[in-house]
Amino acid sequence: NGIGGFTCQCPPGFSGQRCEDRDPCGSQPCMNGGTCRATNGNTGFQCICP
């Protein structure tokens, strides 16, 4: 994003300047209509039952 710069296009579930931040809910790990909530500073997740 500028002269000599770059912009990463991250795959689903990842973000950050170099796609280094993983979204623990990006893979939709919760089943049966559960809602995923990231925990522990985005290092884990919790499923909330409907």
Task: Output the structural class.
Answer: mainly beta
**Beta-strand content estimate:** 25-35%
Q: Level of helix content?
A: under 10%
Largest sheet: 2 strands, antiparallel
If helices are DSSP runs of H or I spanning 4 or more residues, what is the number of helices? Answer: 0
List the uncertain runs: none
Organism: Rotaria magnacalcarata
Protein name: EGF-like domain-containing protein
Disulfide bonds: 10-19, 30-47
InterPro entries: EGF (IPR000742), EGF-like_CS (IPR013032), Notch_Cell-Fate_Det (IPR051022)
Helices and strands in order, then pairings?
Elements: E1 14-15, E2 21-22, E3 35-39, E4 44-48
Attribute tags:
0% helix, 4 strands, mainly beta, two-stranded antiparallel sheet, two-stranded antiparallel ribbon
Give structural notes.
With 50 residues, the protein is mainly β. It has a domain of 26 residues. Strands 1-2 form a two-stranded antiparallel ribbon. A hairpin with a 5-residue loop joins strand 1 and strand 2. The model has no long low-confidence stretch (mean pLDDT 87).
Please outline what is shown here.
The chain is mainly beta and 50 residues long. The chain has no helices and 4 strands. InterPro entries: EGF (IPR000742), EGF-like_CS (IPR013032), Notch_Cell-Fate_Det (IPR051022).
